[in-house]
Give the backbone structure.
Amino acid sequence: VSAPFFKGASLLIAADCTAYAYGAFHRDFIKNRVVLIGCPKLDEGDYREKLTEIIKNNEIKSVTIVRMEVPCCGGLEKAARAALMDSGKFIPWQVVTIGVDGRVIE
């Protein structure tokens, strides 16, 4: 949680399937960001604690959450939102939702 690459980073917290569903994922989301990838349906545990520690203990500039429109991705968004709140910091953030057809919904 205190790796040097987090210092001054813009975080991208993405569901692992988003890069497969959205063809321009690298160009539109990864460039100039530190990437954290997970799947709340397939991974064990909750990301909230670790994300909170990363945000709390580093100079994070912004957070972008990229998720699919499917219900299981709600867990990733929920954990990231909770981590932002739990960190006690006010950091610019956004959620981008990718549809199952590969287009950006929000």
